[in-house]
Give the backbone structure.
Amino acid sequence: TRVDKAGHKHFMAKEIAEQPTVIGEAVRHYLTQDGTGVKLPGADLDFTKVDRLTMVACGTAFYACLTAKYWFEQLAGIPVEVDIASEFRYREPPISKGTVALFVSQSGETADTLAALRYCEGKADKILSVVNVAESSIARESDIALPILAGTEIGVASTKAFTCQLTVLLMLALKAAQDRGAIKATKCTDLLSKLRALPSVLNETLDCESQLEDTARKLAEAKDILFLGRGLMYPLALEGALKLKEISYIHAEAYASGELKHGPIALIDKHVPVVVLAPKDALFEKSISNMQEVMARNGKVLLITDKPGAKEGGDGVWQTVVLPEIDPVLSPILYAIPAQLLAYHTAVAKGTDVDQPRNLAKSVTVE
Ligand code: G6P
């Protein structure tokens, strides 16, 4: 089927705008009829006997795995190891009994990820994949392939596939938590109903676009941009920096906020914008104190937060973007949107080829 831009200037813009819809579809696909549990249509999987989860991927899919590590560990109590496919495959790590190997890939054809999967064959108890292309090699060679249902993604910089990966991985972590009795039924039902409500919150989030467009015009003049986040916002900071450098060609780096003092703080001056991703969650005070260290060195802070966060931490900040309030567990899916929009509008302001950035390919099927 031919996909067009549906009135958008770029496929990337269209794919960003589609997120409320496709995420809604993914949630419906994995939700049980009564809304209190997670089902894996056509697959039989029980996490009770899983001792360890090994997740492997490349690029944006790798950052989805890093995010999911927090979910599987905190919600389900399963130890998780996450690795980049090109490292994993040559390191040849020992795979202990009771290990489930999980591969995340939009295309399902990434050469390194496929090689890592093949390495795990006969070693891991089960091979799972989270893919967008159901007929792909990675899907076919897995014991269980879970579709993310994002629909065709054309922009080289992944957007809707990333948030659909996050959605499916969160639901899988909730299933694991239920299987293992690691989560209270009420808590699980609550998170699932919040997932169901996510599309409308995401629509509301997309309203921050015009503000980000203004900010992006200013960011387009920067040479280096730093992204900071803690906890679930750390992998998202990595994804935000990746998105930005992929399409705007501005050097961007991400650090866990607590690492600021171990190096990157040396780079801060008035020419370096610092994007701080910090909803008012349990780690908020810590993030704000890191942000103040940046401001004390004249760094220009762009704070992406919610209303309570803006009230408490917004003083003296260069720019504040206020997002709807959301359960901290679901925050990566929501905060992905401003990260994507920031990269998109910075690239548009610079006039780069947003959908086909130089030197990059949508799917990397060779090493
Ligand atoms: C390429 C794409 C990225 C993608 C990565 C992994 O580098 O440009 O957007 O995240 O490959 O691709 P996969 O299809 O395995 O998710």
Residues 58-61, 105-107, 110, 113, 156-158, 360, 362-364 surround 6-O-phosphono-alpha-D-glucopyranose (CB under 6 Å). The longest helix spans residues 185-205. Strands lie at 52-57, 80-84, 99-105, 126-131, 144-147, 224-229, 251-256, 273-277, 300-306, 319-323. The mean pLDDT is 96.
